[in-house]
Amino acid sequence: MTRDKKGPSQRQLKVGELIRHALSDILTRGELMDEVIERHTITVPEVKMSPDLKLATAYVMPLGGGEVKEVVTHLQKHAKFFRGELAKRVELRYMPEIRFRKDTSFETSQRIDEILASPEVTRDLDDD
């Protein structure tokens, strides 16, 4: 039986959410000794899993949005540490490789709000 739909499977979503919670817990408790990471409060809004569950992409953003590139670089530098800690907290047959990326969902949301508030869109909506 093959999948015809394009979205992630329920298993991908569930594993991604388990890893997201565990990563957030590790970051909140300050278990990693890194001066760049320690001086930021880092949010993990989403973790996307590959179809084979062997790669987890964690989208992260420091609160306030400062030093995003540096934070992501330092998180990526400690990916093996996170993978080891996740293996202790999340029961999976195979712990996926972790990679970190900048979360752009807030910027996308803000851009959509700006477009909807623009005079052109407001004028078109008022015509109805």
TrEMBL record:
One of its GO terms (molecular function) is ribosomal small subunit binding. InterPro entries: KH_dom-like_a/b, RbfA, RbfA_dom_sf, Ribosome-bd_factorA_CS. It is found in: Cytoplasm. Coiled coil: none annotated. One of its GO terms (cellular component) is cytosol. Keywords: Cytoplasm, Ribosome biogenesis. Pfam families: RBFA. The keyword Cytoplasm applies. Its main location: cytoplasm. PROSITE patterns: RBFA. One of several proteins that assist in the late maturation steps of the functional core of the 30S ribosomal subunit. Associates with free 30S ribosomal subunits (but not with 30S subunits that are part of 70S ribosomes or polysomes). Required for efficient processing of 16S rRNA. May interact with the 5'-terminal helix region of 16S rRNA. Belongs to the RbfA family. Monomer. Binds 30S ribosomal subunits, but not 50S ribosomal subunits or 70S ribosomes. This is Ribosome-binding factor A.
